[in-house]
């Protein structure tokens, strides 16, 4: 009760923050979903971390509704008819977004936006279309103040995606997060416009469309923070394994590979499956959600996600080699990653039909409280080699991860003089296997923290103690300090 | 590349003009003890360097302890390692054409093994036969034209500009003249007439060459010019717009002009 009072009386939180935390407290007054003693120990010591999802999950962590179907059939629950023009289409989307649950309570996926809006573009004049899309983006930024809210565009060239890119450059919002599915069919001038926008706003991400289609089929999307999931599906939960801590438990490399990693992954699977089972069987989410009833989501397209992080420190701990510096480290990094993937694939993921009953394999890009452990399978910040070597190594690791992986590449501001050079780098990175390429410049108004964007001016406001609309500013400010985000190597600096 | 055949008053990289004469003055000023002389060679220990650039500032001979020798083979292999990430490479200086045989050798090796293009950033002060040789081995040239008025050019660089103008015309005819660059110096070459002349000169050459106007900045400059006020933003913008009326979209300026 004391804790609840502290939330209510906390002057650093506004109403919506308090409501969110109070919900979590209510959930956590129940015992944790049923797991073994050993799994509990791993959770307690932080070897496995459930990202504070709560003891008794009652909705999937990430939900990616089939918005295209929604546009076709409308919604009985929302009392919305299929839209007939751009006004109605945007209104319908802005309404349904408020009804898509997630771990943050904000929708983590806004749709493949040009697919949803391009058909209605001819119903208004070009000037009206631009004004409506501006109004759409401003509404999203103000009413869904969470930088994990994520919109997708590409790979095809459409008027809507061009408009979104130019409006994002103009508006300079941290929300929504934006991904461009990039493939060889994406015309260079669209890619260059995306780079031009990214040099100002840090978005969109460039997503390796071909690689992901090969893995997941064409109906995939990017949600929240680099998660690649199926449209009409999502992920029940994301629980992550700290490879650094597993390495610290191991006597040597062979003990790690043959005993400690298998043991840790078995516990990881146990926790993930227990959580998914609770959502489906106890909370009965899919029996109560209108999204499921109206066919906008389908349990058969869901999975759960297992996140891995701290590979850099694990390799260092076990072999005394540095990824990115010592050539031999690559062999161990790949060996650990492929072992982890094989181990995960040897288990059945409960309610993971969307991923052929396997748990999605994800490189978890860190949270605000991580200290001394590197995100996902990245190279430690500040220790990156030259871009060429970094992309070569990471390009070999990325293909293992079917449920999301990325890196952020920071360039000197002079890169703005040469967008064609950046496009060449992105194309080559894709060819080398990089799945999600985020780019930023040191002079950007934004910082890309783990996977979401935060404005530098908002971080200053947070440090001054101001209450802010976006819940992600606090996470970002703490991450930047703890994960040493600003120590990253800058490319193109002489 | 180290070494230059001009000594412009505004030179932004004066440390690239001459070769090191082993005087040792920089050794005494290096706070990191990253410099030493052995076997009649100056050694620069990059791992110790704090990048304060004091060694460059104190060198009275317009040189640097930081340049090093590399063979054409080593350089082309280094470039080819990054081949997939690049569209091309640019040789710069100093004045890179002073080492034309080296450039040709690297160019051959790079072109035989990659689709990379080779560009030069040059002052164009090269004898005609040498210039023609260079033009046979590169894909594009960025040439400085420090002034159009012959006297002004002499004042800035110490030499007449007729050879440079001829070379620019030749490169233009070969389809290689990617860009002409002029650094704008207050009270020296910043008259409307001067910029107008250069713009019209470029316009008459062809329809593809870019004209880049660069405002003078004091960084790195050793000449007393470093203490002058650099051209004010409004005047620079006026010159830029004037060039635009002649050349349209073919005029460029640095993206970030912090005057």
TrEMBL record, chain A:
<dbReference type="InterPro" id="IPR016905">
    <property type="entry name" value="Glycyl_radical_YjjI-like"/>
</dbReference>
<protein>
    <recommendedName>
        <fullName>YjjI family glycine radical enzyme</fullName>
    </recommendedName>
</protein>
<dbReference type="Pfam" id="PF11230">
    <property type="entry name" value="YjjI-like"/>
</dbReference>
From TrEMBL, chain B:
<feature type="domain" description="4Fe-4S ferredoxin-type">
    <location>
        <begin position="12"/>
        <end position="40"/>
    </location>
</feature>
<dbReference type="GO" id="GO:0051539">
    <property type="term" value="F:4 iron, 4 sulfur cluster binding"/>
</dbReference>
<dbReference type="InterPro" id="IPR012839">
    <property type="entry name" value="Organic_radical_activase"/>
</dbReference>
<dbReference type="InterPro" id="IPR017896">
    <property type="entry name" value="4Fe4S_Fe-S-bd"/>
</dbReference>
<dbReference type="InterPro" id="IPR017900">
    <property type="entry name" value="4Fe4S_Fe_S_CS"/>
</dbReference>
<keyword id="KW-0949">S-adenosyl-L-methionine</keyword>
<dbReference type="InterPro" id="IPR023912">
    <property type="entry name" value="YjjW_bact"/>
</dbReference>
<dbReference type="InterPro" id="IPR007197">
    <property type="entry name" value="rSAM"/>
</dbReference>
<dbReference type="InterPro" id="IPR034457">
    <property type="entry name" value="Organic_radical-activating"/>
</dbReference>
<dbReference type="GO" id="GO:0046872">
    <property type="term" value="F:metal ion binding"/>
</dbReference>
<protein>
    <submittedName>
        <fullName>Glycyl-radical enzyme activating enzyme YjjW</fullName>
        <ecNumber>1.97.1.-</ecNumber>
    </submittedName>
</protein>
<feature type="domain" description="Radical SAM core">
    <location>
        <begin position="1"/>
        <end position="249"/>
    </location>
</feature>
<keyword id="KW-0004">4Fe-4S</keyword>
<keyword id="KW-0560">Oxidoreductase</keyword>
<dbReference type="Pfam" id="PF04055">
    <property type="entry name" value="Radical_SAM"/>
</dbReference>
<keyword id="KW-0408">Iron</keyword>
<dbReference type="InterPro" id="IPR058240">
    <property type="entry name" value="rSAM_sf"/>
</dbReference>
<dbReference type="GO" id="GO:0016491">
    <property type="term" value="F:oxidoreductase activity"/>
</dbReference>
<keyword id="KW-0411">Iron-sulfur</keyword>
<keyword id="KW-0479">Metal-binding</keyword>
């Amino acid at each position: 009760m004391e804790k609840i009072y502290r939330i209510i009386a906390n002057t650093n939180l506004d109403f919506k923050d308090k409501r969110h935390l109070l919900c979590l407290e209510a959930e956590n007054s129940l015992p944790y979903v049923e797991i073994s003693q050993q799994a509990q120990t791993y959770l307690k010591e932080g070897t496995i971390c459930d990202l504070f999802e709560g003891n008794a999950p009652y909705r999937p962590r990430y939900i990616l509704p089939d918005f295209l179907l929604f546009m076709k059939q409308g919604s009985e629950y929302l009392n919305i008819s299929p839209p007939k023009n751009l006004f109605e289409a945007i209104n319908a989307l802005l309404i349904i977004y408020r009804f898509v649950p997630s771990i943050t309570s904000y929708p983590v996926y806004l749709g493949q936006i040009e697919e949803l809006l391009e058909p209605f573009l001819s119903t208004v004049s070009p000037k009206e279309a631009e004004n409506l899309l501006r109004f759409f983006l401003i509404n999203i930024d103000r009413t869904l103040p969470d930088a994990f809210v994520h919109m997708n565009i590409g790979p095809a060239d459409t008027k809507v995606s061009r408009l979104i890119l130019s409006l994002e450059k103009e508006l300079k919002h941290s929300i929504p997060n934006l991904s461009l599915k990039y493939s060889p069919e994406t015309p260079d001038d669209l890619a260059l416009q995306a780079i031009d926008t990214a040099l100002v706003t840090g978005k969109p991400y460039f997503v390796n469309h071909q690689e992901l289609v090969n893995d997941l089929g064409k109906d995939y999307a990017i949600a929240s923070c680099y998660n690649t999931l199926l449209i009409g599906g999502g992920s029940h939960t994301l629980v992550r394994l700290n490879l650094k801590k597993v390495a610290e438990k191991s006597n040597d490399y062979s003990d790690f590979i043959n005993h400690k990693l298998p043991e840790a992954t078995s516990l990881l699977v146990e926790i993930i499956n227990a959580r998914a089972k609770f959502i489906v069987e106890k909370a009965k989410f899919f029996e109560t959600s209108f999204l499921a009833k109206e066919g906008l989501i389908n349990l058969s397209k869901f999975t759960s996600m297992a996140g891995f992080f701290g590979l850099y420190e694990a390799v260092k701990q076990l072999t005394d080699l540095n990824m990115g510096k010592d050539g031999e480290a690559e062999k161990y990094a790949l060996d650990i990653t492929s072992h982890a993937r094989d181990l995960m694939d040897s288990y059945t993921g409960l309610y993971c039909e969307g991923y052929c009953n396997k748990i999605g394999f994800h490189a978890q890009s860190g949270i605000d409280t991580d200290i001394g452990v590197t995100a996902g399978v990245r190279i430690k910040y500040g220790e990156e080699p030259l871009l060429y070597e970094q992309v070569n190594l990471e390009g070999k690791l990325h293909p293992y991860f079917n449920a999301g992986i990325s890196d952020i590449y920071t360039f000197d501001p002079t890169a703005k003089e040469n967008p064609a050079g950046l496009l060449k780098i992105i194309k080559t990175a894709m060819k080398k296997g990089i799945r999600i390429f985020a780019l930023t410049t040191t002079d950007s108004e934004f910082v890309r923290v783990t996977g979401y964007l935060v404005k530098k001016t908002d971080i200053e406001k947070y440090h001054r103690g101001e209450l802010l609309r976006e819940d992600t500013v606090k996470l970002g400010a703490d991450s930047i300090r703890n994960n040493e985000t600003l120590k990253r190597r800058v490319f193109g600096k002489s | 590349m180290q070494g230059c055949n001009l000594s412009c008053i505004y030179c932004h990289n004066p440390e690239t003009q001459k070769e090191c004469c082993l005087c040792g003055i920089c050794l005494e000023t290096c706070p990191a003890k990253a410099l030493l002389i052995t076997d009649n060679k100056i050694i620069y220990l990059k791992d110790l360097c704090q990048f304060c650039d004091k060694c460059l500032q104190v060198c009275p001979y317009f040189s640097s302890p930081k340049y090093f020798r590399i063979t054409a083979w080593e350089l082309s292999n280094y470039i080819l390692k990054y081949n997939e990430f690049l569209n091309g490479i640019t040789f710069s200086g100093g004045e890179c054409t002073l080492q034309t045989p080296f450039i040709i050798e690297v160019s051959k090796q790079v072109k035989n093994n990659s689709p990379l293009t080779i560009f030069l950033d040059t002052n164009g002060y090269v004898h005609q036969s040498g210039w023609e040789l260079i033009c046979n081995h590169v894909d594009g040239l960025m040439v400085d034209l420090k002034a159009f008025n012959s006297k002004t050019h002499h004042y800035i660089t110490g030499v007449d500009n007729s050879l440079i103008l001829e070379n620019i015309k030749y490169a233009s005819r070969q389809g290689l003249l990617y860009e002409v660059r002029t650094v704008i110096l207050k009270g020296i070459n910043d008259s409307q007439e001067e910029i107008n002349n250069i713009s019209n000169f470029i316009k008459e050459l062809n329809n593809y060459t870019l004209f880049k106007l660069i405002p003078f900045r004091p960084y790195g400059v050793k000449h007393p010019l470093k203490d002058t006020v650099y051209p004010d933003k409004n005047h620079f913008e006026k010159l830029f717009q004037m060039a635009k009326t002649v050349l349209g979209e073919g005029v460029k300026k640095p993206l970030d002009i912090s005057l």
